[in-house]
Amino acid sequence: MMKSSIMKRPAHHGLRHLALNARDLDAMKRFYVDLLGFAIEWEPDADNVYLSSGIDNLALHRSTGEVTGGALDHLGLIVRAAEDVDTWARFLTSKGVELAVQPKTHRDGARSFYFKDPDGNAIQIIHHPPISAKVQRRAPSGTSVRRTP
Known about the structure:
The protein is of the alpha/beta class. The chain has 2 domains: 16-66, 2,3-Dihydroxybiphenyl 1,2-Dioxygenase, domain 1; 73-137, 2,3-Dihydroxybiphenyl 1,2-Dioxygenase, domain 1 (Roll), CATH 3.10.180. It is 19% helix and 32% strand. The protein has helices spanning 25-35, 82-94, 129-132, and strands at residues 17-22, 39-45, 48-52, 57-62, 75-78, 99-105, 111-116, 122-127. The protein has a 4-stranded mixed beta sheet with strand order 1-4-3-2, covered by helices on one side. A hairpin with a 5-residue loop joins strand 7 (111-116) and strand 8 (122-127). The longest helix is centred in the middle third of the chain and has 13 residues, at 82-94.
């Protein structure tokens, strides 16, 4: 009897890593650490920094040339409750960040808004009921997850 060549798909645990080319690495690092609360996980050299909220990894790489448009529409940061969306909107506005789209509730019950980072990448803060309740609470901002090179 011949063995089937159909292989069972292995499991994964969702999207947990994103890498962005940064025109101004220092501004991007300050934005994601100081405003959004990411911790520096690893900074192997002056051209790369790896950030984390504790369950993910955001790599920022200094652009060595012109950053050309890619397929990325936006990146999303999940929050546990719908009211957290509005709390984030008020916080970012108080820090001088302009909202591209004000908080709104979508047809599927999700609530979100959009803004941009210093390089112009669109970021969505979103409460998405099917997954927001599954997100574990993270360590408070400022908790270090730094590792040495």
